[in-house]
Amino acid sequence: MFFRKDYATPGPGIDPDAPEKTGPARFLEILQLECISLFKLNLLFLVSCIPVITIPLALFAMNHVVRRMVLDQPVDCFYHYRTAFLKRWKTAYSAFLLTALPLACSGYGAAFYLRHATSNPLFFLPFMLCSTVFLVVLLSSVYLYGILYDEGPLSRAIRLALVLGIAKPFRAVLAVLSYYGLLAAAVLAFPLSAAYLLLIGFSVPCLLGNFYLRTVLKQFCAS
Questions:
Q1: What is the pTM for the complete model shown?
Q2: How far is CA 84 from the centre of its chain?
Q3: Which of 143, 144, 171, 204 is deepest in the core (most CB within 10 A)?
Q4: Could you tell me which residues come within 8 angstroms of residue 159 by beta carbon, excluding any fewer than 6 positions away?
Q5: End-to-end alpha-carbon separation of the chain, Å?
Q6: pLDDT digits over 102-147, tens only?
Q7: Closest Cα partner for 220 from 170, 141, 167?
Q8: Residue 145's CB: how many other CB atoms inside 10 A?
Q9: CA-based nearest residue to 136, from 174, 94, 106
Q10: Gap between the Cα atoms of 48 and 43, Å rounded
Q11: pLDDT tens track of the chain, all 223 residues?
């Protein structure tokens, strides 16, 4: 079936005796092994975003499936996506609100105070505060979804995401560029990028972002 994968049937995979690949070679290996699943995942994400209110659930479920790919765990795209989408909806909405609201408020505040800073230099102080909050939340948000894969307490996940966002910013910047940079480029190129967005425009950037974060999360997460 289109949304099912038979793990009992021999097929391509990673040789357990082969040395583990790293860097671009490992990323390309995941792309090769999971290319069909990535197409399915992109379609599932787009369809489940149609009601709009389900976007937080779709984001969480997509990151959940992609995290399995990065960890080299078996992926039944439809099953694992549906499970995360339906059973962890509270965590999905909490994660979305705890990142989207601070980003929106601090982003608006930074833009507002920057406009007024030209006439009054004192406005640079709240501008710097809002900019710092925006940057910290942005970098922490990409770690948060990976940490939540372990199903630990949300409060612990938030604390760890904030610590990693501040202490390990380089990988987070690469993940942010993967998530939002590629999406922004595709949106600007629309409608030329319509086929890209339909087929892999969300799942592959999500995979790339999670791939950049994998070495950091490996040190602090159970899986």
A1: 0.86
A2: 14
A3: 143
A4: none
A5: 29
A6: 999 999 999 999 988 888 888 899 999 999 999 999 999 999 999 9
A7: 167
A8: 28
A9: 106
A10: 9
A11: 444 444 434 344 445 455 556 678 889 999 999 999 999 999 999 999 999 999 999 999 999 999 999 999 999 999 999 999 999 999 999 999 999 999 999 999 999 999 888 888 888 999 999 999 999 999 999 999 999 998 888 999 999 999 999 999 999 999 999 999 999 999 999 989 999 999 999 999 999 999 999 999 988 876 6
Whose tokens are 């790919």? That residue is 69
Tell me, letter by letter, the H, E, C secondary structure of the chain: CCCCCCCCCCCCCCCCCCCCCCHHHHHHHHHHHHHHHHHHHHHHHHHHCCCCCCHHHHHHHHHHHHHHHHCCCCCCHHHHHHHHHHHCHHHHHHHHHHHHHHHHHHHHHHHHHHHHHCCCHHHHHHHHHHHHHHHHHHHHHHHHHHHHHHCCCHHHHHHHHHHHHHHCHHHHHHHHHHHHHHHHHHHHCCCCCHHHHHHCCCHHHHHHHHHHHHHHHHHHCCC
Residues in the chain: 223
Tokens linked to 79: 């099953």
Between the CA of residue 223 and those of 147, 149, 181, 217, 218, what are the distances in Å?
9, 8, 27, 8, 7
